[in-house]
Amino acid sequence: METTREHELREAGLRVTRPRLAVLGVLADHPHADADTIVTAAREQHPSLSPQAVYGVLKAFVGAGIARRIEPAGAPALFELRVGDNHHHLVCRSCGAIADVDCVVGASPCLKPSDAAGFVVDEAEVVFWGMCRDCQVEAAAESVQIEERHLNEEHDMIEEHDIREGARA
Amino acid sequence: METTREHELREAGLRVTRPRLAVLGVLADHPHADADTIVTAAREQHPSLSPQAVYGVLKAFVGAGIARRIEPAGAPALFELRVGDNHHHLVCRSCGAIADVDCVVGASPCLKPSDAAGFVVDEAEVVFWGMCRDCQVEAAAESVQIEERHLNEEHDMIEEHDIREGARA
DNA sequence: GCCCTTTTCTTGACCAGTTCAAGAAAGGGG
DNA sequence: CCCCTTTCTTGAACTGGTCAAGAAAAGGGC
User: What pTM was estimated for this model as a whole?
Assistant: First the structure.
């Protein structure tokens, strides 16, 4: 019995239900999963699970403070169980992969705006944009190919674009 | 003649068109406008302007480097002309107001992740979440009203649970 | 253990923001 | 001024996500 997870839910003031346990399990396995990934993965344990149920569960988790929602620009929302430590994220521009980064300064709020313009700031969210190791390798390989293509010239193009494996989760 | 703005467009390698000049004007007036605001405002100068044209223009601007797109979680994308200085943003949780903040450390990339996990980072985006002055005032006024209501009322239970302030940072 | 109330899940419609596609119109170099 | 290219208009479509109503199931009291 997943008493541990049941406990986590109860601790958070949430009823223990199959969909919630399933989603919790998926989040434990996929530290930065989007709703769709969660639906798909959670259906292994609970086939009838609906997307709306997942949205509801996720909203409950976020509301109860056991999950955090992150929304990198241009990507669907991602959810993670690591909460309360104000860590930040590295996002790969080409494949969307996400990695955690500990808070730069340590404590939260980790950053203070130089001039808060009258705002009361309660969170500083940092997103580091860049390219993950895999995509760097791929990009390097591709640029080599382009070079070769130029050398060989007048041969038909090898369409390698759209490789984009979903290494998001 | 808006030679200045025409020049800005040409400088950026863009053709000068009426929709573009209109959008450029709106962005100059509204430093953090969303697509819808831009459409509405730009129609004062160019009534037949379509939303799709605006999306196209904005994409062109961003591509040409004369505008920047920001996407605060849970809000439509906003566009600003201030580019190239890697400044950051304060976002009001209750009304969505946005204010610019100069880069905390000065130069861009202003922050270096403690451990980049193999990523090559090219930008550090910081969003400060909080409450703007207006909303603070409003919230204060509202809490006073609630307090009065409690005092006047015949001692209904003062439900204080679920306060759970989002002190996530 | 069973009932009852409340919460949650299922099913299905709907919405906002944005993108895609095809043809018409406008920019601007020659 | 013409022609080619880019851009805009019009209209449809798509994605990620929300809303609403009824069915199901959680779990406290008996």
Answer: 0.83
